[in-house]
């Protein structure tokens, strides 16, 4: 019974993270290549379930139009690509409010942000070493230029510990 209460509390925190919207104004950090910058400032973990916030800042001079899912590539510490299925929505990994909402067209004006999130389970049922992504590259849409996901405080680094699951869910862009 004690463990059930902790699990429910952690699940509520994860749901709140995913349901809350991103900040309206972009940070003033330099380094906005191609007019957008991808950041993550939070990863929540509970009972093997992980949720990572993702934000795109429009640092260009033109409006950014989004309608779909971030395009994601995962790489290990040596920048070698991981063989991971990137799923739209939770892909059956779990149930989180808002995570499986269908994509909606949104416009991100210069200086504004939009959000997304990743979800995965850190489960290892193999004798093989677990898959761990230390580098992530994102694009706003298929065919767009991929750029690195940057950890910003309080997040210290990018660490996606997939274990042997081989899959990660991605939330559609939202405001």
Please, could you describe this protein's structure?
The protein is mainly β. The chain is built from one helix and 13 strands, in the order αβββββββββββββ. The chain has one helix at residues 2-19, and strands at residues 36-40, 43-46, 49-58, 64-66, 71-75, 85-88, 106-108, 113-121, 131-133, 135-139, 147-151, 160-163, 167-170. Strands 1, 2, 3, 5, 6, 8, 10, 11 and 13 form a nine-stranded mixed β-sheet that branches. A two-stranded antiparallel sheet has the order 4-7. A hairpin with a 2-residue loop joins strand 2 and strand 3. The chain is globular. The N and C termini lie far apart (37 Å). Mean pLDDT is 86; it is low at 1-30.
């Amino acid at each position: 019974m004690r463990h059930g209460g902790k699990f429910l509390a952690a699940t509520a925190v994860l749901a709140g993270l995913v349901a809350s919207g991103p900040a309206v104004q972009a940070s003033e950090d330099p380094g906005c290549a191609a007019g957008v910058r991808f950041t993550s400032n939070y990863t929540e973990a509970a009972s093997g379930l992980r949720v990572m916030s993702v934000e795109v800042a429009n640092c260009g001079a033109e409006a950014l139009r989004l309608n779909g899912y971030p395009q994601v590539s995962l790489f290990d510490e040596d920048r070698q690509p991981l063989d991971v299925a990137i799923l739209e929505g939770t892909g059956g990994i779990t149930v989180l409010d808002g995570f499986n909402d269908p994509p909606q067209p949104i416009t991100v004006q210069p200086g504004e942000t939009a959000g997304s999130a990743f979800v995965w389970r850190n489960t290892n049922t193999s004798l093989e070493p677990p898959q761990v992504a230390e580098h992530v590259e994102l694009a706003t849409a298929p065919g767009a230029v991929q750029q690195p996901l940057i950890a910003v405080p309080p997040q210290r680094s990018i660490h996606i510990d997939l274990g042997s699951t081989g899959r990660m869910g991605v939330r559609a862009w939202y405001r």
